[in-house]
Each structure stands twice: as C-alpha cells, then as structure tokens.
Amino acid sequence: STLAQEAASGPAESREMMEQQAAQIRRMLAAGGLKPEMRQQLTGCLRTLEAELAAAAPVAQQKPCQQSTSSSSSSSSQIPQHVDSLLDALLGQQASDSCQPLPPPQSMPPPGRQHQQSRVRPEPVFKDLFRWRVNVPDMPEFPQIGCDPRLLAPLRDRFEATKNIQIDGEIRQVVLDRIQPLLILDEQPRALRFKMPPGGRILLRVDSHQPVELRINSCTKVLFNLRPHMVCLGGPFHELIVHGRPFNVQFNDPNPKTITLGHGASGQFSVRLQALLSNGRPVTPSLDICPTIPRSVLRWATDGAFGSPQHLHLPPLNPEVQMQQ
Fold first, then answer.
1. What are the structural domain ranges in the chain?
2. DSSP of 211-280, one letter per residue?
3. CA distances (Å), origin 210, targets 131, 159, 165
4. In the chain, how long is the greatest CA-to-CA distance?
5. How far is CA 288 from the centre of its chain?
6. With contact defined as beta carbons under 8 Å apart, do 181 and 165 qualify?
7. Which mean pLDDT values do the consecutive 10-residue runs of the chain (325 residues) have?
C-alpha cells in the first residue's frame, strides 16, 4: 500500500493540467479538418496523456494486487508543457510546416537483426514528449539529454567496452562502459535508447508474476521477491536496468533470462521483456538517438555528482553544489 500511495501523490494541479490538455486534443480531433498525419500525431499525444493520468489515479481506483507503481520523478510534470507546444503550433497554423508523419509500425525482424534502425526521418514537433526529461534542482538550463544523467555513471566491473550495431545500414560502435549505452556521432556522445509506435507497450514479467508495464521516459518500482527495485529501460545490450545495474535481455525472447540481484537462489530471478503494438502483436522497438551529451555532464556523472543511479525515484543532485562540497 505504501508503494501505491507514493504513485498517487502527484500534484493535483499537474493532473488537472493534463486533463485540460487531453480535453483540448479530443475537441480538435472531434472537430475534423486535420490532415491524416496530424491526426495520428495528436492521437499519440492523447494516448500518452491518458497513460500519465492513469498512472496518477487515486489509490482507490487501482487494482489491489497491482505489482508496480510509476516513480514520482519530475519528468512527468513536463509532459503537458510539450503538448502545449504542439497545440500552440497547431492553433498558429504552423504544424503543417514543422510536423512530419510518424514512421509506420515495424514488423518483427528476422533473427539476428534486432535493434536495426530504419532510415532517419525528420522528427515531429512533439518528439521530446516521449523522451525522458529530468529537472536538476536550481539548474533551469540543464540540457535534456534523453535520459536521467545518473544513468551515465561508469561501470566498474565491465571489460567489454564496445559492441557493433547496424544503424541506418552502417556498422557503428555502441559504447557500453556506462549504465546507459552511448553512440558517438561526429565525436559527440549521445544516449542510444528505444522508442515505440503510438499505443505500443513494453512489459516486464518477473518469474511467474503478472507482467508490469515499463515506460520509455521514466522508471518504475517493481517487486522482486517482495522487495521494490527501481527499473527502467536502457538501450541495446543494456535493455533492462534494475537498481542501477544493466542487463542484456532481448525483447520478445521466448526463453526467459536469469538475472542476479542478490546472493544465493533467492537473489536470482527469471525475467522476460515483451514489446507489443496496440493490437497485441510483438514488435522490436526502434532506436532513438538522443541529443548530444555535453562533456561536462559526462564528467559530473563519472564523479557521481548527480547522485546514485539506485535512487532514480528521487530528483538528481545539483552537480555544481556537489563538486563545491
């Protein structure tokens, strides 16, 4: 019950704002006169807002046997602002110039071609709506890099620093010496994460328990043997991140993967990741190349100035204050 109360304790004004944004989008969809691609994009925004509202529902409306709750990170409060940007563009008749159609849902790739990225398309105006946004205290200009900066903490026990991956028909190296996989483009590091078509879902099944939905742009509390752990998605080869530790768990693999979170048999768990379209069909998530990560952010993450990656349910620390101390 404590976990459910934490999930339900979001600010009332943020929930009211999201409800207003959702109602405005519904009115625009009902009015008609929108181009097909614009209708599709607005529908994706609406589904995201509805998911946020469902996650913030009061405890009394949630199922008593619910196994996870979305974290109260500061990222969710940013979503209405991004929807505002899209609506402002539409009302100003600017959307037809700046928005691009979404790519069609991907079908299952042949074995051995997981994580292959299609040709890069121009990003829609609400692209960042689906990325992880984090507010650093007293740093309003902190760059949004597509993930929590604590995930950039280095791995001390990994010897395989890079692996090859095919992106846009080219073989590129993914840097794996940090929790979050990175891609180096034009000598600039970027987080390499996942994205799903509108309405798609990613589910985590632990042992024989009911699956838990994971979100692209935040972390989730999941029970492992009745103990809560913060869980989020990472990127290729580090698909699943549990309590600050990355694991290689392929999507839609029929064979469960055993991960170790503690000592002995009680610390081992069988997990599966499923990525599903809105119609329930399996799909391999596309790759999302996030914005450039400033070198200063990497240095702060290396020094642990943002705090521990095990505490993603809390806001990150101010790195400037931490380095002064």
1. 2-198+285-324
2. PEEE-TTS-EEEEETTEEEEEEEEETTEEEEETTEEE---BT-SS-EEEE-SSSGGGEEEEEEEEE-TTS
3. 26, 35, 32
4. 61
5. 10
6. no
7. 40 66 78 70 77 64 43 41 52 38 44 46 46 90 94 83 89 94 94 93 94 92 92 96 95 95 88 95 94 96 95 93 87
